Amino acid sequence: MRFDEAYSGNVFIKSHGNYDESDVVIYGMPMDWTVSFRPGSRFGPAKIREVSLGLEEYSPYLDRHLEQVKYFDAGDIPLPFGNPQRSIDMIEEYVGTLLEAGKFPLGIGGEHLVSWPIFKAFKKKYDDFVVIHIDAHADLREEYEGEPLSHSTPIRKACELLGPENVYSFGIRSGMQEEFEFAKTSGMHMSKFEVAEPLKEILPTLAGRNVYVTIDIDVLDPAHAPGTGTAEAGGITSKELLEAIMLIAKSEVNVIGADLVEVAPVYDHSEQTAIAASKFIREMLLGWTK
């Protein structure tokens, strides 16, 4: 995959045409090889790009315009269908190259396992960073039906890689009893059900620290995001997730990268899930990159 050539398909709205002059690189990870319920998130990156063309380029939340951020849409990593390990290796290598070039990586999934190789790539560059994880699911399993490479495992892997005290989960409302017990006893932070209110308490304690943010679209209630593989009733609204993004943007943490995952367009013919995701990415671009 080339880093310096513009993607030939749809690109995220206002994507800058020059890789070298861009500070941020958007890249897709079209993978759903390990999902435990409904596949289809490999089509998420393309759909999010497509519907982004309906966005306004100005954010009234942040009083910023997309012209103020130089970002390059590199397209999708050409992941080998059905091969989780090779796909993970390719993502880690790709993100490592972006970090070496001084870019801010902004990934679009794909299932949530794609965040695991990103964590590994960041660990090679940053000795100390925190993961903020916004999701309906704990993702703290060690394996799923005997398979350690699963979209239900990336946050457990993050705890093992970074130390559980450097992992902060928000919005969690689903998981095995053992996952919630692990969260209680390991030293990680887990806020059940809510996102914005606990973030208001936690963010000041992370002031000055490097932070990577991973957002699973299923943190939203299915009424707001039906287009996802493992929908879970009882979630937050789009407005509440926007508030959380604004809280991070206006905090004193140093966001070093981010991803948004698990948009599965086939389950949402209205496209409201992808439309919401594209707006969240706009705010992440404007609020989290300098």
From TrEMBL:
Keywords: Hydrolase, Manganese, Metal-binding, Polyamine biosynthesis, Putrescine biosynthesis, Spermidine biosynthesis. Mn(2+) binds at residues 112, 135, 137, 139, 216, 218. GO terms for biological process: putrescine biosynthetic process from arginine, via agmatine; spermidine biosynthetic process. The keyword Metal-binding applies. CDD domains: Agmatinase-like_2 (cd11593). It holds the Pfam family Arginase. This is Agmatinase.
